[in-house]
Amino acid sequence: MEPLTLISATPSPFARMNRIALTLKSIPFTLKNEIPWESDTETPKYNPLEKLPILLFPDGRKPVYDSAHIQDYIVAKYADREPKLITGDVDQDLEIRQIVVLSEGCLDAIVLNRWEGRRDAAVQSKLWMDRQNRKIDGAMRAFNDMVVERQNAGKDYLVGEELTIADIAAVVTVGWVEWAGLREGWGEKYPVLKRWFDGLDARKEFAETRPVMFDLTQKVV
């Protein structure tokens, strides 16, 4: 199998979800890192929304973009490769995709908040930043409630009996909150979530894909 290409940015939690899924399924791929906001980016060539990640194919198939859609593509197109990363039950798989949506929404709020924070202090919108912070806090509460409920039921994973893209999404999102230092002391506030997160984040596929900051040299906002 010829390797696929995943275009990413080194700190991207969105691409991290896809990297973990591809690695778990033993799908060969090459990671191509770039900064989508800088003038020499190739991102618009493959995604009209100019966002990463983007999955490219050696046979010339159309690129696939948006991390949630890439996850769906991976589990559907490579369904013959273990692990499945979904359950095969319609209701459970819809729940899985809802958790992925929650994760992406939280990550979007973090990105919007951080970009607003890069603007000159005189023009920053506190109302806007407060709104994004409410989304982040709401997602963290939701993740904690999910884990508590599942562990009270004697379950290790958010949906079903095995690791799915829901667990990947939640761990990546919580991991980015921790990596970015957005919520100091969150582990003391949510100890059950912290233990669950630490257990999965220590797995090889997660540990090898942790974010690395890039050097943004061009003005974006």
Q: Could you describe the 3D structure shown?
A:
With 221 residues, the chain is α+β, with helices and mostly antiparallel strands. Helix content is 53%, strand content 7%. It has 9 helices and 4 strands. The protein has helices spanning 13-24, 43-46, 67-77, 90-118, 126-152, 165-179, 186-189, 191-201, 204-207, and strands at 4-8, 29-33, 54-56, 64-65. It has a 4-stranded mixed β-sheet, with helices on one face. Helix 4 runs antiparallel to helix 5 (126-152) and helix 4 runs parallel beside helix 6. The model has no long low-confidence stretch (mean pLDDT 94).
Distance between the termini: 41 Å
SSE order: EHEHEEHHHHHHH
Write down the Rg. 18 Å
- Class computed from helices, strands and strand pairing: alpha+beta
- Quaternary state, please? single chain
Please list the strands of the largest sheet in the order they lie side by side. Answer: 2-1-3-4
Low-confidence stretches: none
Number of helices: 9
Family: Belongs to the GST superfamily.
Protein name: Glutathione S-transferase domain-containing protein
Pfam families: GST_C, GST_N_2
Organism: Paraphoma chrysanthemicola
